[in-house]
Amino acid sequence: MALVICGWLTVMWVRTANPVEAIAYGAIIGGALGNVMDRIQFRGVTDFLDFYVRSTHWPAFNMADVFVVGGVGLLLIALWLSAKFQNGP
Predict the structure, then answer these.
(1) For a disulfide at 45, which of 2, 17, 34, 38, Cβ 3.0-4.6 Å?
(2) Per-residue pLDDT tens for 23-46?
């Protein structure tokens, strides 16, 4: 399923004229493929970043997850800004 989504995102990446959206799609694709490669090579994804703030535990994650989440955030911001400037203030 992840490979199918990466294929669709690659089509979106090629079609976009917005450089910020292109970076966002690239980050999402790279992170997703990183997790796919971990699943193929190690039969699972190793989450090695684990943080605590006093007694509160943040869910463990890896750099591929950072790129997926960061890419999605950047894509949402780019789409929001694009819609905001097209519709006027």
Answers:
(1) 38
(2) 999 999 999 999 999 999 999 888
